[in-house]
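Write out the bound-state structure for carboxymethyl coenzyme *A.
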Amino acid sequence: MSDEKKVAKLEIDGKTYELPVLSPTAGPDVIDIRKLYSTAGVFTYDPGFTSTASCESTITFIDGDKGELQHRGYPIDQLAEKSHFLEVCYLLLYGELPTPAQLEDFESRVTNHTMLHEQMQYFFRGFRRDAHPMAIMVGVVGAMSAFYHDSTDVRDEWQREVASIRLIAKMPTIAAWAYKYSVGQPFIYPRNDIDYASNFLRMCFAVPTDDYQVNPILSRAMDRIFTLHADHEQNASTSTVRLASSSGANPFACIAAGIACLWGPAHGGANQACLEMLREIGTPDRIPEFIARAKDKDDPFRLMGFGHRVYRNFDPRAKVMKQSADEVLELLGIEDNPTLQVAKELERQALADPYFAEKKLFPNVDFYSGIILEAMGFPTSMFTPIFAVSRTIGWISQWKEMIADPQMKIGRPRQLYRGATLRDYVDIDKR
Ligand code: CMC
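---
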């Protein structure tokens, strides 16, 4: 590797420090500042990690300027078109596309872990019926560490593998049961004779009194939604999982932390917030009013489903999602869906507006996903849980990579302290 060849020079108080520049296989060079404090006695300052690489990774690459996303080198649009979710899970987790025998083995391992410990039902029943499904997911996934003791030792490679398979397999059951609980319907057990996406739809929408046939169009669309959300390198929830796990915490606790982070409206919660915004806009004639609000510095309102920290171009996932929304709504015979019409017109007007052009704000993955999910029959509160089901594989793959990394250290950022300096305690009667 040519890692050590380039150096960056940093001058502080007339003294020059040389910092190695590391070359990635793709993307910008990275200045290695690991020895900066021990040699120069200074920290760097980067709230929000806008210019900081927090780890070395081989899983996902994003070119934000070009609007490209690749998993292990394969572009997302090819994976969305030609592959399917469990194959993408294998690719993310093990680094290569599987052979037919490897895929069959992997699918069978996942399928055989989809049931939850029967006792976990009582855990669900402890929540209020009006609990947000994300609140239930944070609690139930964290509680998995109390149910699956034999896969919590992160130093044991086999236990890590079992925990990974359990999480991929059980997450759809947990999300579906959170939904069933919220609508007061009986839990539907997973079935091993149908595929991952169909199984999830069945667990959400079947009832014991009727036969339930999964619509293959919806199943394909569901699988594509899972695939498009599978991983996105060091985003907030993935970084949360990595940071939580850097202390040696068990995988279920770490993934629960990732789910909690994903819930926020700036991250995974944006799909729910976006559909609610589109409904609030209601008709295309109200779009200019909302665009004006998004541009107003004194109004905290933002166009949900627009903008991204990394993409300064179209989010490639949004392109596939838009096409999928058109297909699904057409196949379901609801192509004149008013929310889709508002979304398309909002996208058109925002992209033609200099504010959004100058700031390079484009639709992101959350802009069209809610329209598809709503057409499938999901309430908005289930949008972010579905994101969590999809992103579980990304969290696990990044977690697995991190634990196997010999450079792994506990995550412990520094700070720019601007508080009071040393002073003596003042007794309460003297304040
Ligand atoms: N509507 C209006 N203005 C916006 C928007 C928006 N959606 N997003 C960013 N801006 C403006 C922002 O006001 C700022 O303007 P100025 O430079 O004048 O202060 C500028 O663009 C840069 O914004 P930022 O907040 O500094 O950028 P960021 O990289 O920290 O934030 C973001 C990225 C995704 C949090 C932000 O674009 C946002 O809040 N978008 C809406 C929420 C959303 O759709 N989130 C989903 C992200 S994709 C899926 C996921 O990650 O889970």
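---
The longest strand covers residues 15-22.
The chain has a mean pLDDT of 94.
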